[in-house]
Amino acid sequence: MSGARSYKEDLAAGLVCFAGGLVFYINVHFQEMIKFDLLGSKFFPKLACAGIMFFGGILALQSISRIRGLKAEKETEAAPEGKSFFNKRKLLFVAYSIIYFAALEFSVGFLYATPVYMFLNMLLLDAAKSSASKMARYIVFSVVVTAAAYLFFNRVLYLLLP
Fold first, then answer.
1. Which residue has the higher pLDDT, 7 or 74?
2. Which of 57-61, 73-77, 120-124, 149-153 has the highest average model confidence (pLDDT)?
């Protein structure tokens, strides 16, 4: 894979992360405020969204500078390229799933939306064809991680998830 192509993929991934963080931040902004501590129930989700947007923006900016650097060098060597894991269809699906998750989380809640979101994205990101045993592991993993996150926020941080 050539350097310019991988930087373009990083740019696209950075922009998707930034847009996803922005969608989640807006979603958190419209959630009901529950005030039972100094920080409030929106502090940690907004902090996480800001972190996603920050690192997505950094990835996009680094990619832009590297793409410009490669264009300045004007290397004419043709490198043989194999089959790329990245494609526009996957990127669009991830972007759509982020928007869908934000809407689904707001309407049905964290416990129902998160396992579905995690399972579908694990299937998407799996490079090999998924077998029934892999799908079962993905389902178990997504349910366990969702339950652990819910218990952590509820019992340790005393924050209610939507």
1. 7
2. 149-153
Band (pLDDT 50/70/90 cuts) for residue 3 is: low
Nearby residues of 95 by Cβ (< 8 Å), 6 or more positions away? 16, 19, 20
Give me the mean pLDDT over the 137-148 stretch.
Answer: 92
Closest residue by Cα to residue 14 from 46, 53, 44 = 53
Using a 10 angstrom Cβ sphere, with 0-12 exposed, 13-18 middle and 19 or more buried, the burial of residue 133 is: exposed
Supply the DSSP string of 55-68, one letter for each residue. HHHHHHHHHHHHHH
Q: How far is residue 12 from each of residues 23, 45, 81, 147, measured CA to CA in Å?
A: 16, 24, 19, 31
Closest to 126 measured CA to CA, from 137, 110, 116: 137
Structure tokens at 19: 């847009």
d(CA 13, CA 7): 10
Q: How many CB atoms lie within 10 A of CB 104?
A: 17
